[in-house]
Amino acid sequence: MSASELISIIQTLYGELRTSFSGDAGEASARKRAEKLTYTPSVPRSRNKARGDYRDKVHNMLLRTEELEDRPAISKLVARAFADQAKGGEPGEVALLEQLYACDEYIQQFSVVALVEDQIVGHVIATRGWLDGDVPLLGLGPIAVDPEFQGKGIGGALLNEIRDRAIAAGERGIILLGHTTYYPRFGYVPAIPAGIIPSDVSWGDHFMALQLGDKELPQGKFIYAAPFGV
Q1: What is the pLDDT of residues 45-87, one digit of tens each?
Q2: Secondary structure (3-state) at 10
Q3: 175-219, pLDDT tens digit by residue?
Q4: C-alpha to C-alpha distance for 45 and 137, rounded to whole angstroms
Q5: In the chain, what are the domains?
Q6: How many other CB atoms sit within 10 Å of the CB of residue 62?
Q7: What is the pLDDT of residues 89-136, one digit of tens each?
Q8: Among 183, 184, 210, which Cα is nearest to 196's?
Q9: Among 118, 195, 207, 214, which residue's CB has the most CB atoms within a 10 Å radius?
Q10: Are the CB atoms for 31 and 206 separated by under 8 Å?
């Protein structure tokens, strides 16, 4: 069986899976599965208290490349951002980040922090991934914003910064697994219908791709950096 025939079969199964999981209950089930298997945050929550103060601070936001001395503050930020999913323990995203820093797929220019008044309030990382083992793409995540600064556009600014850096570096595309109502605002589309296949097709529309440039992304199976294990 050729690779294209296999991809066609997976796309058919994906369509059947979407049908079987249609409706609110199916969407909730798929979302829980995606959140368990990925390291992307919940859709930013709006805050009603002191919105003006936060807005003023965000106007002074600085985005820059992560540095070694930033890592303890980033770990604390990620722990706060994912505390709701940790059930009292340390979120797995903290250990994942440490492993990503140390892996061969780590690319420093794609690890970006957001600072407000010298405080790290957001972080995103994209690491090397591979399509069919030989086409390099970026796998994005985790991305985290301090809970006190969510809903202020910081997550979007980080996503746009990674996109711009990837374009400047000649990258062909970015892959992520996340919320289907948030990331499409930044150009991400479901990847499976385009023939980019995840390790688990039950991720469905949560598995998304962003094409960079005019050249379409090839089809194939995407593999994340080794610490993700998928």
Answers
A1: 444 333 334 444 577 899 999 999 999 999 999 999 999 887 7
A2: helix
A3: 999 999 999 999 999 999 999 999 999 999 999 999 998 989 999
A4: 30
A5: 3-228 (3.40.630.30)
A6: 10
A7: 899 999 999 999 999 999 999 999 999 999 999 999 999 999 998 999
A8: 210
A9: 207
A10: yes
110 closest CA partner among 118, 100, 99: 100
Neighbours of 110 (CB within 10 A): 23
Q: Cα–Cα distance between 81 and 147 in angstroms, integer?
A: 6
Write down the mean pLDDT value for the chain: 83
Q: What is the dihedral of CA 124, 130, 131, 135, to 10 degrees?
A: 110
The tally of CA atoms less than 13 A away on the side-chain side of residue 52 is 0
**Residue 195 CB coordination number (10 Å):** 20
Report CA-CA distances (Å) from 61 to 4, 73, 81, 155, 190.
46, 16, 18, 12, 31
- Concatenated DSSP letters for 162-220? HHHHHHHTT--EEEEE--TTTGGGGT-EESGGGTEE-S-GGGGGGEEEEE-SSSPPPPE
> Is the CB of residue 202 less than 8 Å from the CB of residue 177?
no
Please state the φ and ψ torsions of residue 71, each to the nearest 5 degrees.
-60, -40
Q: Could you tell me how many residues make up the chain?
A: 230
Q: pLDDT-based confidence at 34, cuts 50/70/90?
A: low
pTM for the structure as a whole: 0.80
Percent of the chain with pLDDT over 70: 75
